[in-house]
Amino acid sequence: MPYCPILATLAYVLSPDGRQVLLIHRNARDTDEHLGKYNGLGGKVEDDEDVVASVRREVMEEAGIVCEDICLRGTISWPFFGKNGEHWYGLIFLVRGFTGTPLTRNPEGDLCWVDVDKIMDLPMWDGDRQFLPLVFDDDPRQFHGVMPYENGKMKSWSYSRI
User: What is the pLDDT of residues 83-126, one digit of tens each?
Assistant: First the structure.
C-alpha cells in the first residue's frame, strides 16, 4: 500500500542575533493534544501551495511576520503520529530572517523567544528532542529521518544526512 501522509511544514524562526528562537507555548485550549508543550510554527500544506508558500503562510498566520531568509534543514516521516493514527510528513525549516514584529499570542497559545541553548529544557514532544539538535547545529547538510509512533509515543528515530 502506498504511503500517503499528511504533508506539513514546521518552522523555527531565529531572532536577528541568532541566539533565540520563536516558539509557541500551546496553552490556550484544554482540548489541544499539544497542551503545555512548546513547538515551532507550522501546519498542513494546502492543495494550492508549494512547501515554501506553506511555511510563509503558516508563520504569517501564527506569528504575524513575513519570512525573508528560509532554509530547509530536513524532513521527517512520522508514521502513525496523528491522533487517529494518521501518517505525517514534515519539512523542517529554519527562518534566519523576517520582517515585522511577532505577535505575542495566537489562538493556540503564547509566542515567546527562547534561548536556542535552553530549548531542550522545555516541555515538548519526546521526538522533538531527537531532531531539534539537527535543526540548530552547524552542519550544512540536510537531515532526512523517520520517527514511527505507536499509541501517541515515539517508537524509534533514525536519519541520514546529505
Answer: 888 999 999 999 999 999 999 999 999 999 999 999 999 999 99
Query: What is the CATH architecture of 6-161?
Result: Alpha-Beta Complex (3.90)
Q: What distance in Å separates the CA atoms of residue 125 and residue 127, rounded to the nearest whole number? A: 5
The residue ranges of every structural domain in the chain are: 6-161
**CA-wise closest residue to 14 among 111, 109, 98, 117:** 98
Query: Grid coordinates representing 95?
Result: 527562518
User: With left for phi above 0 and alpha for psi between -120 and 50, is residue 50 left, alpha or beta?
Assistant: beta
